[in-house]
Amino acid sequence: MSDVKKSLVASVVVLATMAAIVTGNKVRERIEVGPGIPVGGPITSDAVVASGESGVATTDTSKDPISETALFYQLMLLLEKDYVDPITDERALAVGAVHGMVDSLADSSSVFYKSDEMKSLDLLQKGTYTGIGAEFKLVYNEDELAKYQHISISAEDSKPNADYDPVLLIPAVIVSSVAEGGPADKSGLRAGDRITMVDDKWAISSAEVKEIRGLRAKVDSGKMTAEQIKPAIDAFRQKLESSIVPAKVTKLLAVGTSGSVKVGWLSPDGRKGSATIGKSKIKEMPVGQNNGTIDLKFFSGAETLFAQAINGKQKVTIDLRESTLGDYDTMRKCLALVAPDGEYGTISTEQVGAPHRLTVVDGAKTKRDISLIVDGSTWGAAAVFAKALTDAGIATIQEGSLTGSLPWIQVVRLPDGSGYTLHTGDFTTEASQ
Amino acid sequence: MKTLFKTIAAIVIVMAGFCTGFAWRDISIGDAPSTEAFGRLLSGRLDVGTTPTQLFRDNYRLILTRFYRPIEPKKLKYAGMSGLFNSLGDPHTVFMEPQTAENFSIETKGNYAGIGAKLGPDPLGASVATIFQNGPADKAGLKVGDIVTNVDGKDIAGIDIDSIVDQVRGPEDTSVVLRVLRPDVKDPIEIHIQRATVIVPTASGKMLPNSGIGYIKVDQFAETTFDQFDSALFDILRNKPKGIVIDMRENPGGLLDTASNMLSRFVDGKTVVTMKQKGGRQEVTTTLRGKTVDFDGPIVILINKDTASAAEIFSGVMHDYKRATLVGEHSYGKASVQNVILLKDLSNAKITIARYFLPGGENISRVVDDDGTYVSGGLKPDVLVKPDPTVATEFGNPDKDAQLTAAMKLIQEKLGN
């Protein structure tokens, strides 16, 4: 072989080796990241960090220099390289990121559930309560929520709104349903009650913060003295020191089938209650009947029992109070048992795109005289059911009235057993528009 | 034959190159190449299950497009990154989005120019509570007890103290004119003060009245703290104290070297902390030899839930070598070192890269759940004393400081009276 040939072969081998290194790296990246996801280059800045003021104020932050997947992947690599403990479960990092995203929505109907909580939610959808035998929802201060949501829409301008106050966004934990004959029911807890204390820890909501601020304002305007409000402020400070976050409250009360938990609550009429309530598993039937009234809860499979209950009856009264979140598919099936074919409303969103419609095909052939009993504890699928029937003129509300919004909720499951509910739209009918 | 050998060698080299590239992700972080990944490569199962990045992306898109109202993509992205960091359960490993990062850098800048005095509220303006030795105010002749009534020609009576302080502070080398009333002096005095960068005292001491007990308050562990601590300590030792209270409450920590030097006054040539990094690398810090002071009376260290980092090291080491008793409430539990990395989009990643272990071997790291609620960690006090909630606590005043009173009582008991 001539020298020229030799060096040619050598350089081919070197180039091929380099190409192999790059290809190997790419193949590995594809395995770790998944097909079709660009992860970009390094995300660390060349600017000096130590001084703490390098260009922070002057650089334009309106451009988005790193895509979300690139940022996620690179931060994951960064943690694997630098974090003091070995990272054994990368999936947990991704689930953590999803948890963070769901929490940032600050929406009563969009809630992250860890795997044990998700199990309880699944059981509940089938009619089995765990924990103390009640279901809970987080209710936010509407005014503050509006401010918070306002800032999130203005995409061009990422400056935080000075008016928005995170402290006033702490939600209240409200009992949304109580399993009949279960431990919570026997202790006197009712739908609509606000949980104020769990195991000697205070569940503080924005209501308390507002109260304290109201007192402070009175001192500023000279209506009260600092000494007069001191006991209230000290009491609040002590509550704050042993407080518990709302998400934890629902977990302590709704998860588990053994042991007991000390609960304090405040009823809408101002009565205070407290009790030590045992945890157990309570099965509630989706359809109950008393004195001709049908108690309907949209647990999965309810449609069969509901069909039997209304079979042959011309006049039907349905009690929709103390309903749980409910299974929306089951609700559709129940709707088809009493409503004729047609369109009953839309699931509208503020997002672009055509809204989904709530339609009934293969619906009821006979016309019935239907009355409904509802109140503030009628929510989720039950509230949509009531609204669809009444606005279409198929049913009348015999007792109570529907309050609040009618969220349409999707349940999303993650591979590790956790999951979340996502508020995907609000149910509206033509009559309500 | 020779050509065949060469061909095989070339193929082997190229394959080795591929494997190096494939395993680079592991090699670059100091791990062994992942056998699991090679297994997947050999079996051709490249798309088994959902990768973490896919899981994140799918849910990011789902939430962004299906949530009932539009969300700012950037906000959702950063919320996801915060969640990613929070999932590690370490309160010090945090992701800071650009806005937060900016505030953080202003906060940590710290240095300010002023006149070197502490002002307190007064109906006529502001009273001078403390003058820092050799500071600009000291040099210009301002005295403790003076009442400032006018700053740069503006009357300040009735203005709240924080605004007054803002007016007095300013850029280095500019000057400020104060009109002050001095007790026993009839006419107001005008004092011109050249502002300068002020070193705020971080340790100070005194003898507690009628007790024979010395008291040293350490506010943080800055570079200058060791000298200030020393001078406070030697002042007290000249008074032949029966016992000493060292107050570490609200002390957020600072430099390990400072803590180590201060410990050298009590502990001779022993381990302060062992720092353990990823992969088992260790680094040991020890106190100096032959620097201890001649004092063997009882020492009590006051701690509370804001005693953190270097302050916990000082307190924990004194405790582990049985040189001090800890009184108060459990401390914060920061026994780790962080690295802050600035990202291209100006967000910051703050990551715990090492942990300290005290001589007793205990890991005092604070553990929180993913909601940020305290679960465990921190130094446990030998004597648990909570502050009296009915009294506005004044640190260092035995009449208005329940934890200090308890510490003094403990010293008396140890002395046998």
Q: Quick one: which chains have the greatest interface?
A: A-B, 105 and 92 residues
| Number of distinct beta strands of chain A | 18
How many runs of DSSP E, i.e. beta strands of chain B? 21
Largest sheet of chain A: 5 strands, antiparallel
Q: What's the end-to-end separation of chain B, in Å?
A: 98 Å
Radius of gyration of chain B: 29 Å
Q: Explain this structure to me?
A:
The complex is a heterodimer of chains A (433) and B (417). Chain A is an alpha+beta fold. Chain A contains 12 helices and 18 strands. Chain A has helices spanning 3-33, 68-82, 90-104, 115-125, 142-153, 183-186, 206-220, 226-241, 246-254, 302-310, 328-338, 381-391, and strands spanning 112-113, 128-129, 134-139, 172-178, 194-198, 201-202, 260-266, 272-278, 282-283, 287-290, 293-296, 315-319, 342-348, 356-360, 369-373, 395-399, 407-413, 419-428. In chain A, strands 1, 13, 14, 17 and 18 form a 5-stranded antiparallel beta sheet that branches. Chain A has a 5-stranded mixed beta sheet with strand order 10-11-12-15-16. Chain A has a 4-stranded antiparallel beta sheet with strand order 6-5-7-8, with helices on one face. In chain A, a hairpin with a 2-residue loop joins strand 5 (194-198) and strand 6. Mean pLDDT of chain A is 81; it is low at 46-62 and 151-162. With 417 residues, chain B is an alpha+beta fold. In chain B, strands 3, 4, 5, 6, 7 and 8 form a 6-stranded antiparallel beta sheet that branches. In chain B, strands 10-11-12-15-16-21 form a 6-stranded mixed beta sheet, with helices on both faces. In chain B, strands 1, 13, 14, 17 and 18 form a 5-stranded antiparallel beta sheet that branches. In chain B, helix 8 packs parallel to helix 9 and helix 9 packs parallel to helix 10. Chains A and B meet through helix 1, helix 2, helix 3, helix 5 and helix 8 of A and helix 1, helix 2, helix 3, helix 4 and helix 5 of B.
